[in-house]
Amino acid sequence: MSDIVNFAPSELTPEQSVVLSRAGYRDRLTYWSVINCLQPCWVMWYNPDPGCACISRGKRYELTGDKILLIPPHTLYSGEHSQAPRHYFIWFQASAPFDLPERKVIELPSQPFLERLYAAFSPGKRQLQQIYTLVHELLLSIPEDFFSHSDSPGKAQVINKAIRFINRNDGNIRNSDIAAELHLSPTRFNHLFKAEMGISPQRYCRQVRMYKAISLLQEGVDIKTAAGLCGFADRYHFSKEFKTYHNITPGKWLKTHQRVVDK
């Protein structure tokens, strides 16, 4: 090579980070209810078998064996299934520049990633390393211009600031407090948020709280404690909200979902 690139030690310190929230495999996906969902994390789906679809912004994405679906954070979507396919999934969070991409579903060809994906979900001592590597490879395969809008001025920048503020408060925040943070009236903020995101700010706040609830339950936190940490006064109201959002009670969720990849 004619040119040599040398990095200073400070430049080799990684600024980007990926954190796994959930990862798993279902041999036959018989229960799947996803209606107008908007997660504060990335979601990866891969189904070797047909029978599932993702609907977002009026477009339908069929889950087939030749593609992997990536749903960016804060992207409104629904899901449906007509059969019981095999289903691989990963929920993860990624720091800048991957934290606020364009809000639309990404379809990637599955072939370049299948060897890594199957290795990640096969018993072994390096499963987590395989999953983290897979996630990085998927992110790096996304065109750079998919992230360029996050630095653009105007409405998108205002809503991105609101999203970060809501997430820092785990969704336990009032519209008036968010609007004050953005120097907007509550009415103006509510209008801007709904126009950009497709749902109201408080509905998004509830989804952030329910995302946190799933993470807490998966970590082994009991239902009563999880309710308090998510800002609910008691277990009853927490269970009611959880069922409204996930279409299943926390107790039943614990029985039917378990961490597939262990540290």
| Number of beta strands | 9
Structural class by sheet pairing and helices: alpha+beta
Measured distance between first and last alpha carbons: 41 Å
Low-confidence stretches: 259-263
Order of helices and strands: EEEEEEEEEHHHHHHHHH
| Radius of gyration over all CA atoms, rounded | 19 Å
Shape: globular
Topology:
Elements: E1 18-26, E2 34-37, E3 42-46, E4 52-56, E5 59-63, E6 67-71, E7 77-81, E8 87-94, E9 106-109, H1 114-120, H2 127-140, H3 155-168, H4 175-182, H5 186-197, H6 201-218, H7 223-229, H8 235-246, H9 250-256
Helix pairs in contact: 1-2, 3-4, 3-5, 4-5, 6-8, 7-8
Characterise this structure:
There is one protein chain. It is built from 9 helices and 9 strands. The chain is of the alpha+beta class. A 5-stranded antiparallel beta sheet has the order 1-8-3-6-9, with helices on one face. A hairpin with a 2-residue loop joins strand 4 and strand 5 (59-63). Mean pLDDT is 84; it is low at 259-263.
List its traits:
263 residues, alpha+beta, five-stranded antiparallel beta sheet, four-stranded antiparallel beta sheet, 9 helices, globular
Summarize the structure in short.
The chain has 263 residues and is of the alpha+beta class. It has helices at 114-120, 127-140, 155-168, 175-182, 186-197, 201-218, 223-229, 235-246, 250-256, and strands at residues 18-26, 34-37, 42-46, 52-56, 59-63, 67-71, 77-81, 87-94, 106-109. The termini are far apart.
